[in-house]
Amino acid sequence: MSLSDTIKKILVNGVVLTALVVLPNSIMNASRIYTHGYETKEEKNMYKMDGIFASTEVNIKRTGEVRIMEDRGLFRKDIVYTENDGDGLVDQIVERSTFWRSGPSLERFDREKDYGDFPEKFDEADKYLSEQLERFELK
After folding, report:
1. Contact predicate 108/93, CB 8 Å
2. Are 121 and 99 in contact (CB under 8 A)?
3. If residue 69 lies in a helix (H) or strand (E), which one and from where to where?
4. Distance CA 22, CA 53 (A)
5. Residue 121: in which H helix or E strand, if any?
6. What is the pTM of this model?
């Protein structure tokens, strides 16, 4: 096989592999690109794509609970931030590892019992909550 045949084969395989990754993501998110969310009697839900297989979803319950779900894609942890009482501080953080990562598959942090051990995690989460509420024009 000549060098030009090898290069052509590599390029074709690259295009096929890219299509296998991008196409399912596009199909999965196609309706969400133009739909900013939905609203029911109980909640308001908004969604934005952040990249290939990555998205952020904000869910606001009529009770005032705010939940931000950050799906970071195939290789990083997915994180859910929950703010229960309207004070602007994240009350709970749940981190779910992807199948590519080792370690615990689910970690839960509660502000009341875990803030003393993980103040940076909660301080960053509070900042992230504020940034996402601004990004979704909810602040």
Report:
1. yes
2. no
3. strand 66-71
4. 9
5. helix 119-135
6. 0.73
